[in-house]
Amino acid sequence: MTPEFDLIRRHFVRPMRAAALGPGDDCAVVAPSPGHELAITSDMLVAGTHFLPDTDPRRLGWKALAVNLSDVAAMGAVPRWVTLALSLPQIDHDWLAAFAAGFFDCADTFGVDLIGGDTTRGPLNLCVTAFGEVAAGRAIRRSGARVGDGIWVSGQPGRAALGLADLLGKVRLHGSAHDDCVAALEQPQPRVALGAALQGLATAMIDVSDGLLADLGHIAHASGLGAVVDDAALPWAPLHAACTDGKAVRDALLAGGDDYELLFCAPPEADDALAALSMRLALPLTRIGAMQSGDGVRLVDAAGAELPVGRRGYDHFA
Amino acid sequence: MTPEFDLIRRHFVRPMRAAALGPGDDCAVVAPSPGHELAITSDMLVAGTHFLPDTDPRRLGWKALAVNLSDVAAMGAVPRWVTLALSLPQIDHDWLAAFAAGFFDCADTFGVDLIGGDTTRGPLNLCVTAFGEVAAGRAIRRSGARVGDGIWVSGQPGRAALGLADLLGKVRLHGSAHDDCVAALEQPQPRVALGAALQGLATAMIDVSDGLLADLGHIAHASGLGAVVDDAALPWAPLHAACTDGKAVRDALLAGGDDYELLFCAPPEADDALAALSMRLALPLTRIGAMQSGDGVRLVDAAGAELPVGRRGYDHFA
Predict the structure, then answer these.
(1) φ, ψ (nearest 5 deg) of residue B65
(2) Touching check for A71 and chain B: CB below 8 Å?
(3) Of the candidates A138, A128, A271, A115, the residue with the CA atom closest to the CA atom of residue A195
(4) Among B32, B71, B136, whose Cβ lies nearest the Cβ of A27?
(5) CB contact under 8 A, B27 and A39
(6) Burial class for B241, CB neighbours closer than 10 Å (0-12, 13-18, 19+)
(7) Quick one: pLDDT band at residue B118, thresholds 50, 70, 90?
(8) How high is the ipTM of this complex?
(9) pLDDT tens digits, B34-82
(10) What pairs with residue B71 in β-bridges?
C-alpha cells in the first residue's frame, strides 16, 4: 500500500448510500433516477484566495463541499454525489482527519456520497465537483425571470463578509455576532431543501457567492431584464446590530459573497406559497425588489430615487 | 463584464454538441442516454508535479483532458462531457489561448463537450472532471480478472518516461525517437476507441498512468489474483532502438507512467477478436502475461524464473 493510496483509504473511503461504483477504480459509476438529468458544478478553492491558510481544517472540509451543494441547490436540483481532488504540500494526518470529518459531516447532513477523486502533491488546493438530480427539463436557470417577478433572498446575506472583515481586523464584532458571522463564513449552510422546494415557484435562481448585486446582475443579464432593488426592503437590521461600521455593513450586504444564500425570482402569485415555505423551513425569505424591462441592477430608496453603489461583488482577477 | 467572466467567455465557451445546459449557470445539466450509467473521473494536474512549468500550453491543454478521457476509456465507457477548473497566477491571454486550443483540439478529436468549470487566482493548477456513458452494469472494472486470462497492453508503453528522462537530461534520444517520446509525454493519445471496443472482451481494465507493474498490481489486488508478466513478451525493441541506456529503458517500460495505454485482461477465447480489433484500430495489442491464483505481480524470464524489479511505478507522496 503506497502512501497515496493509504491516505485515500484512511481518510476518504466511506460506505456509499447509492452509487453503482465508488472510489478505487478508474472512474466512479452512477445512475441517475429515470426521467432525471444531472446538474454538475465544479469549484476550486485555493489557500490564500478562498480561505485563510490557518482556517480550521474541519470547517474548510465542510465549506469545500457546502459551496458546491449550494450551486446544485441553485438549479432546484437535489445533490447526490461528489468527487474531491486535493493537492497537498505534505501528508499531515491530523489535518486530513479534521478536513475529512468536516467534509463528511456536510455530506451526511445533505445525503451526498463521495464517489471518487484524486490526491496529489502541490500547493494546497481543493477541487470539488458535485452532482445533483433534477427532473428532466426542470432545472431552474438564471435566464427565466419575467417582468413583474419579485426578487427574493433567503436567510441573512452579509454575515460572511462581516465575519471575514472581523478576521482581517477591519471591523470588530462582539460576542454572538462574531461567532455567528464567522460561522456563516467558515461553515455556510447551503440551502438544499429550499432549492428543491422552489421547483414550480421560482422562475430564475442563483446562489450569492460573489455578492448580492453582482449575482443579481447575472440573473438580469441572462433574463434580458433589469432588476430594481428596494434599499429599505433589504435585511439591514441584524447586520447593524452586529457592527457599528455603517459602510462595512453596506458593503457586506450589497457586495459580500460567501453566504451562499439563494437569490431567486418568483411571480407575485407565488407570494403565499413562499410565505408558507419560509415557515416550514424556518428560513427567512425576503422580497427585496422586482424585475423590470431594461437592463442592469439599480438600488433605489423609498421614493424610487437611485442610490449610489460602491462595490457590487468580488472578481478574482479584478 | 468582469475580467473573470471575460476570460471564460473568450477562451472556454464553445458551441455544445449535446448538453441540456452548458457553461454560464450555477450548474451544467446533462442527460445520459436511456439505459446508460455515467462513468466519472477527476484528475488534478499541478505545475512542478505533473508537468514542467515551461511546458507548451497547447500540449498541456491537450494532456489535461487526455488523461481524464483515458480513465473513462479504461471503464469501457464513451466520453461525452468535461468540466475544467483552473487556478492561474495571472491572466496571460496568449497562454490561455494556446491552452484552450490544445484542450479543444483534444475535445473535438474525441467528441467531448466542455460544459462548465471555474477559474480562480492561485498557483497554476488544473482540475478536470470527465464524464462518459456506459450501458448500465457494463463498466469494465479492475476487479473482474479471472485465472487464465491473458494480460494485454496497447500501443508502446515506456515512451513517455523516456521522453521525460530526455527533457530532464538523464538520457539522450535522437531525431524521430526524441520527438516521438516527447509527444507521448506531452500529447498522449487516450485509447478511447479501444476502451469502448473492449466491451464483451476484457474482464478487467486500467490505464497505465503510474507504471505498468504498479497499475497491473491494482488489477491483481482488486481481482484477488496474482499476475505473471513474461519479460520476453514485453515490447522492448522500439525502446532499445530509441535509447542506448538499458537501465533507463527497463525503468521506462516496467515503471513509467504517463503513456495512458490500456492494460487489460481477457480470456484466451478472445485472442482472435483482439487480433482483429488491433488490425481495425491500427493499434498494437500485446499479450504480456497471464493471471494466476495467488497475489502480487511477478516478472519472469523465458524459463519461468523470477526476475528482479527495481521501481514499479510512481507515488506522489513516496
Answers:
(1) -80, -45
(2) yes
(3) A138
(4) B71
(5) yes
(6) exposed
(7) confident
(8) 0.85
(9) 889 999 999 999 988 878 778 899 999 999 999 999 999 999 999 999 9
(10) none
